[in-house]
Amino acid sequence: MQSLLRFALVLIALPLHGGWTFAGPYGGSARSLAIDPHNGNTLLVGARDSLLLRSDDGGQTWRPLPFPAVARGVFNSVIIHPTESGHFYAGLDAGDSRDSGVYESKDGGEQWRALPGIGGRRIYSLAISPSDPRVLAAGTSQGVFLSADGGETWQRISRENDSEMQDITALAFDPAKSEIIYAGTPHLPWKTVDAGATWRSIHDGLIDDSDIFSIHVNPERPEMVFASACSGIYRSDNAGDSWRKLIGIPGTHRRTHILAQDPRASGTIYAGTTLGLFKSSDEGRTWRHLTFEQVNGMVFDPGDPRTLYLATEYAGVLKSNDGGEKVHAVNAGFANHNLTQITGDGQHLYASSPYEGLYGGVFVSNDGGLHWTLQANEHALLGRNLNSLTAAPAPNVLFAAAEDAVLRSADGGRTWLPLAAQPRIPATSADRSTARIRIYSLQTVQADKFILLAGTQAGLFRSLNSGASWTLVKDAALEGRPVLSIYVPSQGTSRLAARTTGGLFISGDIGLSWRLASLPDSSYYLYDLALPANADGPILAATSRGILQSVDDGSHWRPIDDGVPAATVDSVRFHPVRPREAFLVQYGKIYQSLDGGSSWKLFPSDGLEQSSVRMLWFARDLPARIFALSAARGALFFDLPQPDSVRRGDAAVSSKVN
Known about the structure:
Blueprint: H1 3-12, E1 21-24, E2 27-28, E3 30-36, E4 39-47, E5 52-55, E6 63-64, E7 74-80, E8 88-93, E9 101-105, E10 113-114, E11 123-128, E12 136-140, E13 143-147, E14 155-156, E15 170-173, E16 181-185, E17 188-192, E18 200-201, E19 212-217, E20 225-229, E21 232-236, E22 244-245, E23 256-261, E24 269-273, E25 276-280, E26 288-289, E27 295-300, E28 308-312, E29 317-320, E30 328-329, E31 335-336, E32 341-344, E33 349-352, E34 362-365, E35 373-376, E36 388-391, E37 398-402, E38 405-409, E39 417-418, E40 424-425, E41 435-436, E42 439-446, E43 450-456, E44 459-463, E45 471-472, E46 483-487, E47 496-500, E48 503-507, E49 515-516, E50 526-530, E51 539-543, E52 546-550, E53 558-560, E54 571-574, E55 582-586, E56 589-593, E57 601-603, E58 613-619, E59 622-630, E60 634-639, H2 644-657
Parallel strand pairs: 2-31
Antiparallel strand pairs: 1-60, 3-4, 4-5, 5-6, 7-8, 8-9, 9-10, 11-12, 12-13, 13-14, 15-16, 16-17, 17-18, 19-20, 20-21, 21-22, 23-24, 24-25, 25-26, 27-28, 28-29, 29-30, 32-33, 33-34, 34-35, 36-37, 37-38, 38-39, 40-41, 42-43, 43-44, 44-45, 46-47, 47-48, 48-49, 50-51, 51-52, 52-53, 54-55, 55-56, ...
């Protein structure tokens, strides 16, 4: 008996969990980092998708903080107050949304409020004065703002109409004088010595039009200032009046996102770059390359400066106990992966994330989704990002679609090769060549035999021999239409659906013939489709205007608003063994239907906060567990309660298995 089914039988006997459980995979994008100056075990990390997390054990474990439901944005800067533990500031860039701004928590991140006077402004940088922690500066898309009362009131201190001082990418205070502020922009650095009454450009020695990413002022020698730019790293020994470029870091690494100084050895400088961490022990004269992950933030343990933490773009949070010489990941509970596909082969689950370089690609779980590990990164995927992932009936055999090819793995996703035969536009008599086409979607169907389906810009292709050859479906209704998505039921195979540029189509014979199943009108944009296991059951469509139901095989549709708002639904799924039970996700909330989608009620959503759930999914061999794929936190799951009749039936199966 397959291992996932064995695991499912164990789950059926478990009690109902109180909420959704985060399962990983751990790591991903960490954009900003802060440490409590009086307790090195307390850290705060900011990420994409308005995600904030806290650690109280030196990064060994992380928990998400209950940040208010606001527009999805990026926390480019986070601060822990220098004298008040549990007092946090976080700068959010949520685009032009009114949710952009600076947020404050005085209870360790359990409750947050938007600070008045700066809302609606994209926050690129934050700084707090070392000499007076009541003084904060915020670098925004509309200039520099200053607060002298801990963030209660704000005043723009840069000229409103000065095009040179709009996007403030870096800020730093003089360590002894809060009225002296340095500001970095996409147009060189600037300085004020009178709290913003006047500003001057300090660019003598810098290459013209250098983007400034970070500024660091030596706390012991304020006249020594470092700045990183797209053109390299610069040092000033006269408080910014003139600069000289530091050598030693290759030009390919010159995008230095963060500069930091060893708190116990001022001559030791760290540079976090696009391609790793560099260290200089002679005030920047020479450098050594220590790590290769893109560094976005860096902090030192106040009790032991040899311990430092790095916020990285793809590897999450890294920790070093020896001044950066060796690093290791500390990501348990922290993830910012955007999982877009999930599949299973009866023994393993697989999920994929695009555009994450060496730290994303294909992940595998061997325990029903409880834990995930990276199986194949961009190197194993031959430099490709996947837009579709599906498992064959045979264990460890996977197929994946990239834009330019169908790939196959025969070892559980570790190694991949393009198929020798790819879907191609058939050659004409005048032109015997075949053209490579874009591939949008891939699905597997197990009927009398295994069928592989590929949706492409030239139409739908079928393969009956695991991709060794392909046949273009020439049904008149579908022929020539780009096929963007293919939908199959979790059980049963006769009825399929396909989304094309010309609308939704239904097939009742495993993809040989198709007919149009038009939604009510063009204002309904289709995001997802749920086909029940029984071919005569209702079809559910997740659209931009709510959930639609068809009880006549797609010929007619009706909007459903009983228990669920008529608003965007991201994903909808039928339970794999209970044909009338369905689930949908809308704005991060889960709804459940027990009557084929005719009516809905709220389902527990505890644990999904700040997760940006995009897709719901069931494994055929694991019907007691529903999965949610998230754009912010990877995979989450919920263990469903089972009816007594199901428990009794599965107990009988279990006795036969054992």
